[in-house]
Amino acid sequence: MKKNIIVSPSVLACDFAHAADEVRRVEEAGAAYLHLDVMDGAFVPNISFGPDFIRALRPCSSAVFDTHLMINEPIRYIDAFASAGSDIITVHIESCADFAAVLSRIRALGRKAGAVIKPATPVSALAEYLPLIDMILIMSVEPGFGGQSFLPASLDKLKEARRMIDRSGLDIDLEVDGGVTAANSAGIIAAGANVLVAGSAIFKAADPAAAVRALMG
Ligand code: DX5
Ligand code: ZN
After folding, report:
1. Is the CB of residue 23 less than 8 Å from the CB of residue 60?
2. Do 212 and 23 contact (CB within 8 A), yes or no?
3. Pairwise CA distance, residues 185 & 190, whole Å
4. What is the number of other CB atoms lying within 10 angstroms of the CB of residue 67?
5. For residue 3, what pLDDT band results from cuts at 50, 70 and 90?
6. Where are the domains of the chain?
7. Which of 44, 36, 47, 42 is nearest to 10 (CA)?
8. Sheet holding 135-139: strands in order across?
9. How far is the CA of 55 from the centre of ligand 2 (A)?
10. Atom 9, ligand 1: residue with shortest CA distance
11. Annotated catalytic sites, by residue?
12. Is 148's C-beta closer than 6 angstroms to any atom of ligand 1?
């Protein structure tokens, strides 16, 4: 099934002092999702924000809140991120002792369950969990920081994930995160992604609204 391309601007790259305005601007430009990167300083070597920041932004936006948890044992915080207003909660397979339990908890709360893999983790690691997954996220940089360059090997991982999803017959979105720009988005979409996360390419651009439109193609 051919899906429309969705842009998910990563708030990590915006001006935190004016986050509400930044978020409104990208939504007006046509971004249907908002990507919220949560980092705990343990699973990744950086600290960002937690559920209270997401809760504060919730009234400023009607976009789908696409929360990417880069934290150890996220099972501890799924309820908190759901109640903060996350619509999709995406968890790393590398961070969970019982991945199926975490995905199931997200769905039990009525949210969409995302499953994400780091660059070194093979796509096949997700195969057994497909019936529990609403979105697969392929990291195209090492998680932890915005502003890195897209790892070209991610294109093959996207193609493999797209084949796996299509073979399954399940309704699973395919998202990509890290180093996505207007210059490489066509190849990324051709490889099968239908949700594009972009931080620097949007919020560091002179005209973030134009950058969102450029990514939508
Ligand atoms: C990295 C985060 C990304 C990051 C993307 O760990 O998961 O979402 O904000 O930023 P850019 O688009 O600048 O690579
Ligand atoms: Zn992210």
Report:
1. yes
2. no
3. 8
4. 26
5. confident
6. 6-216
7. 36
8. 6-9, 195-198, 173-177, 135-139, 112-117, 88-92, 64-70, 33-39
9. 18
10. 146
11. 37, 177
12. yes
- 204 CA: nearest ligand 1 atom: 13
Give 2's pLDDT tier (boundaries 50, 70, 90): low
pTM: 0.98
Say how many Å lie between the CA of residue 72 and the centre of ligand 2.
Answer: 15
Number of helices (H), then strands (E), belonging to the chain: the values are: 8, 8
Task: Please state which CATH number belongs to domain 6-216.
Answer: 3.20.20.70
In tens, the pLDDT along 142-181 reads: 999 999 999 999 999 999 999 999 999 999 999 999 999 9
CA of 57 to the centre of ligand 1 (A): 19
Q: How far is CA 21 from CA 25, 57, 184, 200, in A?
A: 6, 10, 27, 17
Dihedral Cα 60, 66, 69, 75, nearest 10 deg: 100
What is the rounded CA–CA span in Å between residue 20 and residue 118?
A: 30
CA distance 43 to 206: 32
Query: 216 pLDDT band (50/70/90 cuts)?
Result: confident
In this structure, the residue with its CA closest to atom 10 of ligand 1 is 146
Pocket test for ligand 1, best of 36, 140, 141 (most atoms within 8 A of CB): 141
Backbone phi, psi, residue 182, to 5°: -65, -25
